[in-house]
């Protein structure tokens, strides 16, 4: 059965993509701890990050690091937070988000999807795409 992330990757559900290649994608979380909260996700649906092949895991971390640098540049945060939880969706993913303190590491404090400001979400995606030099689908320009 396809996960919600697979449905986003395949275009069956909407997503604000900021990065995409043949093995990994990065799109905004619909329940961000801060505007600019990105999920780095393998295209291949794997439930647990511990089950991902080492080569793919290395690639996902390269993408997460690249996205993290873009987060710092785009939002002026002190750091880019990095978190793996994986209980919400059975498809491995890395949370990368603007972090000025430890509050972003509490996913239970995220903005609910129905309370996010669509204009701020779109603005966050555009800032990240500009920093990453990617198009609206997350592909390199």
Automatic annotation (TrEMBL):
<dbReference type="InterPro" id="IPR036265">
    <property type="entry name" value="HIT-like_sf"/>
</dbReference>
<keyword id="KW-0378">Hydrolase</keyword>
<feature type="short sequence motif" description="Histidine triad motif">
    <location>
        <begin position="91"/>
        <end position="95"/>
    </location>
</feature>
<dbReference type="GO" id="GO:0016787">
    <property type="term" value="F:hydrolase activity"/>
</dbReference>
<dbReference type="GO" id="GO:0009117">
    <property type="term" value="P:nucleotide metabolic process"/>
</dbReference>
<dbReference type="Pfam" id="PF01230">
    <property type="entry name" value="HIT"/>
</dbReference>
<feature type="active site" description="Tele-AMP-histidine intermediate">
    <location>
        <position position="93"/>
    </location>
</feature>
<feature type="domain" description="HIT">
    <location>
        <begin position="4"/>
        <end position="107"/>
    </location>
</feature>
<protein>
    <submittedName>
        <fullName>HIT family hydrolase</fullName>
    </submittedName>
</protein>
<dbReference type="InterPro" id="IPR011146">
    <property type="entry name" value="HIT-like"/>
</dbReference>
<dbReference type="InterPro" id="IPR001310">
    <property type="entry name" value="Histidine_triad_HIT"/>
</dbReference>
